[in-house]
């Protein structure tokens, strides 16, 4: 049966009548900003990350490892082949050297350190990280640092040092001094993979570790 309203419109020769329908708007989950995430959400977000092309070549992401109550944060460059395969940071040859270096100054990844990388995905063939990959990925590292609140940060190699300290200076210029990241003391040293290639530089790395030990006594 036609309503009065429709009869009226027909009489005026206006039609068809437009009626508002209920439509299904898919409810979109509003993505949480990385700077608000807790550890679990951050880890899940990194696991699913597709912000750069490295997601196409990785086996899996490498989030970071160690105690989330650690006073010491060690930051490397990016997962290598072994890390990409096993999903854990510094598990290859460079990782073994890192463990020995930490052990020598009374630190251990099981007890008092957390280990993370600038990039969470392996660059193919272990090539250098691209600036756009670093730009996309560092938000995760910054959040890890905020959540961890370490008492001291050790940066391994050029990419970690230049990214966190926002500088283009070389490792040789940056090591030997205490830097700051958001009021957290930062020490820069050589990457263990570099020390494996250039063992003659281990003496300098040892000097850096002695600085770390000095800081540990203050922490
Ligand atoms: N090199 C890094 O910088 N990070 C790793 O996790 C492994 C090798």
């Amino acid at each position: 049966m036609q309503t009065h309203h429709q009869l009226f419109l027909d009489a005026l020769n206006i039609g068809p009548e437009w009626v508002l329908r209920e439509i299904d708007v898919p409810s979109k989950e509003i993505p949480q900003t990385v700077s608000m995430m807790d550890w679990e959400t951050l880890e899940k977000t990194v696991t699913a990350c597709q912000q750069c092309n490295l997601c196409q070549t990785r086996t899996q992401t490498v989030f970071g490892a160690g105690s989330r109550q650690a006073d010491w944060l060690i930051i490397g460059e990016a997962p290598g082949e072994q890390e990409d395969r096993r999903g854990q940071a510094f598990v290859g040859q460079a990782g073994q050297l890192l463990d020995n270096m930490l052990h020598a100054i009374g630190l251990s990844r099981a007890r008092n350190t957390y280990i993370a990388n600038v990039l969470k995905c392996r660059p193919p063939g272990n090539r250098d990280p691209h600036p756009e990959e670093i730009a996309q990925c560092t938000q995760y590292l910054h959040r890890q640092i905020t959540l961890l609140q370490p008492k001291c940060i050790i940066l391994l190699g050029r990419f970690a040092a230049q990214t966190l300290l926002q500088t283009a200076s070389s490792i040789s210029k940056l090591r030997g001094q205490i830097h700051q990241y958001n009021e957290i003391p930062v020490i820069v040293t050589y990457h263990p993979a570099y020390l494996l290639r250039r063992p003659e530089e281990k003496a300098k790395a040892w000097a850096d570790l002695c600085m770390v030990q000095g800081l540990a006594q203050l922490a």
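The beta strands are 65-66, 72-76, 113-117, 152-156, 179-181, 184-189. The longest helix spans residues 131-148.
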